[in-house]
């Protein structure tokens, strides 16, 4: 996960730097290079799960760019951790193509390069998340178990403290009873002594 985060941060930075003029310039291309079209196709597959050929044609890509503010907002808001694996499987052949390198794409279109960078980063991040998810789940379970054990230990300590308090109270009661018994025995001894004296008179 940590190794993928810089790529995702770079993709977000690329999207943040997108301006309407670059997007408009790309949208205005009548017959763009194939890699520009593929960058937009991969973006639409990951972003919206598009599968219709009409939506993945260049005309469909241009329609997707018709509301630039909303489109850029979608790019920024996508949660890569919940991306369906079906979208990844369909986008991967595009993003792993040799000519899909963002630096190469930038020579054709800055906006398309940003899309290519975003697509690769999203796929990379989702792959890393999928790999880390079981470990994260195990960690969460271990932490929950530890928290439960801590609660049990605290409860046991509480019960032990209560028991110790009860033992202490019992000791105090026993000491009082012993003192009372000794006092009673002393008083009885004194009375017997008096009776003995009286009997001799």
Automatic annotation (TrEMBL):
Q: Which GO terms describe its cellular component?
A: dynein complex
Q: Provide the coiled-coil residue spans.
A: none
Tell me the GO molecular function terms. Answer: dynein intermediate chain binding; dynein light intermediate chain binding
Question: Which top-rank group of organisms is this from?
Answer: Eukaryota
Q: What is this protein called?
A: Dynein heavy chain coiled coil stalk domain-containing protein
Protein's GO biological process: microtubule-based movement
Q: Which one Pfam family would you cite for this protein?
A: MT
InterPro entries per UniProt:
DHC, Dynein_HC_stalk
Q: Where is the Dynein heavy chain coiled coil stalk domain?
A: 1-201
């Amino acid at each position: 996960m940590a190794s993928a985060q810089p790529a995702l941060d770079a993709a977000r930075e690329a999207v943040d730097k997108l301006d309407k003029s670059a997007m408009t310039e790309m949208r205005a291309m009548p017959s763009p290079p194939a890699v520009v079209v593929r960058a937009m196709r991969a973006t639409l597959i990951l972003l919206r799960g598009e599968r219709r050929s009409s939506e993945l044609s260049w005309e469909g890509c241009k329609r997707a760019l018709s509301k630039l503010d909303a489109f850029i907002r979608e790019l920024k808001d996508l949660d890569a951790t919940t991306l369906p694996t079906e979208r990844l499987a369909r986008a991967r052949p595009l993003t792993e193509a040799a000519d899909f390198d963002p630096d190469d794409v930038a020579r054709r279109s800055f906006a398309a390069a940003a899309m290519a960078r975003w697509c690769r980063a999203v796929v990379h991040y989702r792959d890393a998340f999928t790999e880390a998810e079981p470990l994260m789940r195990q960690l969460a379970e271990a932490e929950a178990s530890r928290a439960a054990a801590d609660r049990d230990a605290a409860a046991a300590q509480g019960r032990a403290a209560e028991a110790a308090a009860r033992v202490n109270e019992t000791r105090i009661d026993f000491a009082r009873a012993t003192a009372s018994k000794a006092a009673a025995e002393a008083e009885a001894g004194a009375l017997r002594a008096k009776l003995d004296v009286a009997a001799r008179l």
